[in-house]
Amino acid sequence: xxxEELPLLDIFTSLRQRHGLxxxxxxxxxxxxxLEAGFGISNKQELEQLCCMLWAKSxxxxxxxxxxxxxxxxxIESHPVNFDLPTQTNSQSSSIETSISExxxxxxxxxxxxxxxxxxxxxxxxxxxxxxxxxxxxMKRPSYMLLTExxxxxxxxxxxxxxxxxxxxxxxxxxxxxIEATVAKIGREGILLQPVLMPPxxxxxxxxxxxxxxxxxxxxxxxxxxxxxxxxxxxRLRTTNVFYFHDYPDEYLYRHPAMLDAKAVSEVxxxxxxxxxxxxxxxxxxxxxxxxxxxxxxxxxxIEQLQQSVRYYAWLNPMPSECWRQTTAQxxxxxxxxxxxxxxxxxxxxxxxxGRYIVVKELDESLCF
Length: 369
Hints:
By secondary structure, the protein is an alpha/beta fold. It folds into three domains: 3-146, no CATH class; 173-201, no CATH class; 204-353, Rossmann fold (3-Layer(aba) Sandwich), CATH 3.40.50. 41% of the residues lie in helices and 13% in strands. Strands 6-5-9-10-11 form a five-stranded parallel beta sheet, with helices on one face. Strands 1-4 form a two-stranded antiparallel ribbon. The two termini are 27 Å apart.
């Protein structure tokens, strides 16, 4: 069975119309793009994890998606016919949910799955599914369904972390009372004729975000956008510059996530300044679970170039740290302060960017991918 023959649109439609999940066309198409990029095609478990990661916003929704997949696998096994997404109906979608839930065998390979599929997205059907229930959903959807957060770290937590990234400097017009200087002046003169004022503190932090795009990072594009948005709008930083790359910067960085508007790496490093805080966002190869020595060597080369230009840099990895073992990410983490994307991990990365020393423990050898 080919990937395009799996009734993913049925599950998507059921989640929207029968269960009220606030999913849009983009959420459907990002799954398709992820599958095209080779993410989530190895076995049933990977496909379910991909859809849960991109569609579920809570543990309850996560269980719901897994239950629908379980019923889909059972229907495929009992009725080995070809599924065609464009001709699926809501009655077929309903039939997926009729069986009683049992513990699924989700680590089996996908049935007759092609290793290099050519997937034809069906945006028209997805749009129809979205539009058909939009009015009813807006009337009935509870307030908690309005949340659009990346589950491990919410936007609010991101904003709070950014606000800890401070390098205060007093500058500008003197408008604040300098108590110590004023008291000292009174001691010298014996009378207070005029208080001593000083400039207010302002945050002089310049943040540079270097974001890995495409490939195995496709499922994390929404996360990257949230990081950029919260830093620019709620970080209270002096400047926030964003550049994109794929796997590792070679000669150029790009101002647009579609790899447009190229700028030489050397030129970027000359402009950002020594005291800029540089945060790298990439799975470092952990998402695919493999090891690539060439990627390690090239990453190390540009990190050494980065070290010559800036003092503060850190790495945020959207994959959990237990998934780094025996991958490219584990080796890169030996020469870059790398943290998983979680509230604790993001706080630790911010501490590094503030110039605080962080002890990073070696990955537990008992962990496995």
